[in-house]
């Protein structure tokens, strides 16, 4: 009886400690990105607007990058809808690069295409 | 050929509507999760009962009920999954976690088909105890469905 309670306690304690594990990243939050905001210019090769996550693929001097935009609602609110950009357009991204140097992903705070600005996270925009 | 058919799903009206709708995709995700809950919940319960780790309730009744609930959950999951997939087929076909999930689902369905064709399964439904073979397939089933759940969740993290 006692040992059964002990096993349950140990398992519960183990599960509870899992809560403190660092979170993994799939576009969510900013913990996985660099602290400083950077700008990057590239040529769009692919536009995806839709769930679960809108994104651009761009070709830059430093290779091919994936640009995570806001979530579908934020992307819509920024005015970035189907037809606003196409492959071949030049884009200026302002955002946070992945803190992992091997990962060419930048999470955009703002994108500028054809002189039009789309701000996905207005409250996070840092001006130089 | 088959791949071209899958890729062409992206151009369908329903895929286009899902991409533009604010509530369509989250609602469909919820249906997919409901399907998984019914499927994996009932399958794991049945597998644990077959393995005698769960001991209560008559096995013949549980087997007939839970395998039907699992089949219903599977239908919901497959239909909602196909629609979720249609939103960006090329993206998912290039995702290794997704491909692994599909391969594991094929194995799990094959396992289920084998079980249902066994005379031991019919005997079980008629009130006989689970044979060693049925216990082995229960163990395989549980491992496969949990692996499917895990690889499915991994799609967003590769």
Write the layout of secondary structure elements.
The complex is a heterodimer of chains A (128) and B (158).
Chain A (H helix, E strand, L loop, with lengths): L1 H17 L19 E11 L6 E6 L2 E6 L3 H6 L12 E8 L7 E9 L2 E4 L9
Parallel strand pairs in A: 3-5
Antiparallel strand pairs in A: 1-2, 1-4, 2-3, 4-5, 5-6
Chain B lengths: L1 H7 L4 H8 L3 H27 L8 H28 L2 H5 L2 H22 L1 H7 L6 H23 L4
Word description of this protein:
Chain A: Residues 1-26 form the signal peptide. Chain A: This is DUF5666 domain-containing protein. Chain A: Keywords: Signal. Chain A: It comes from Rheinheimera nanhaiensis E407-8. Chain A: Pfam families: DUF6152 (PF19649). Chain B: This is DUF6644 domain-containing protein. The complex is a heterodimer of chains A (128) and B (158). By secondary structure, chain A is an alpha+beta fold. Chain A has a single domain, classed as Beta Barrel (OB fold (Dihydrolipoamide Acetyltransferase, E2P)). Helices cover 18% and strands 34% of the residues of chain A. Chain A has two helices and six strands, in the order H-E-E-E-H-E-E-E. Chain A has helices at 2-18, 72-77; strands spanning 38-48, 55-60, 63-68, 90-97, 105-113, 116-119. In chain A, strands 1-2-3-5-4 form a five-stranded mixed barrel. In chain A, strand 1 (38-48) and strand 2 (55-60) form a beta hairpin. By secondary structure, chain B is mostly helical. Chain B has one domain (2-157). Chain B is built from eight helices and no strands. Chain B has helices at 2-8, 13-20, 24-50, 59-86, 89-93, 96-117, 119-125, 132-154. In chain B, helix 6 (96-117) runs antiparallel to helix 8 (132-154). The longest helix of chain B is centred in the middle third of the chain and has 28 residues, at 59-86.
């Amino acid at each position: 009886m006692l040992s059964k309670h002990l096993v349950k306690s140990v398992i519960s304690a183990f599960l509870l400690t899992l809560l403190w594990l660092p979170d993994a990243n799939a576009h969510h939050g900013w913990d996985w990105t660099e602290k400083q905001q950077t700008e990057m210019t590239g040529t769009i090769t692919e536009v995806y607007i839709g769930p679960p996550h809108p994104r651009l693929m761009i070709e830059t001097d430093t290779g091919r990058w994936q640009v995570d935009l806001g979530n579908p609602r934020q992307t819509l609110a920024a005015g970035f809808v189907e037809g606003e950009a196409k492959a071949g357009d030049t884009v200026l991204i302002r955002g946070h690069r992945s803190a992992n140097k091997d990962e060419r992903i930048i999470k955009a705070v703002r994108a500028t295409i054809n002189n039009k600005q789309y701000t996905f996270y207005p409250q996070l925009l840092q001006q130089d | 050929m088959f791949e071209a058919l899958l890729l062409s799903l992206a151009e369908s009206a329903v895929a286009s509507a899902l991409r533009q709708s604010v509530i369509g995709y989250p609602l469909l995700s919820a249906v997919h999760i409901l399907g998984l809950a019914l499927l994996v919940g009932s399958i794991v319960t049945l597998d644990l009962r077959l393995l005698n780790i769960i001991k209560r309730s008559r096995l013949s009744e549980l087997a007939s009920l839970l395998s039907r609930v699992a089949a219903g959950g599977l239908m919901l999951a497959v239909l909602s999954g196909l629609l979720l997939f249609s939103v960006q087929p090329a993206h998912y076909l290039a995702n290794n976690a997704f491909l692994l999930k599909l391969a594991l689902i094929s194995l799990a369905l094959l396992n289920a088909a084998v079980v249902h064709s066994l005379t031991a399964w019919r005997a079980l439904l008629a009130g006989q105890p689970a044979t060693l073979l049925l216990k082995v397939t229960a163990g395989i089933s549980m491992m496969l469905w949990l692996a499917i759940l895990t690889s499915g969740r991994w799609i967003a993290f590769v």
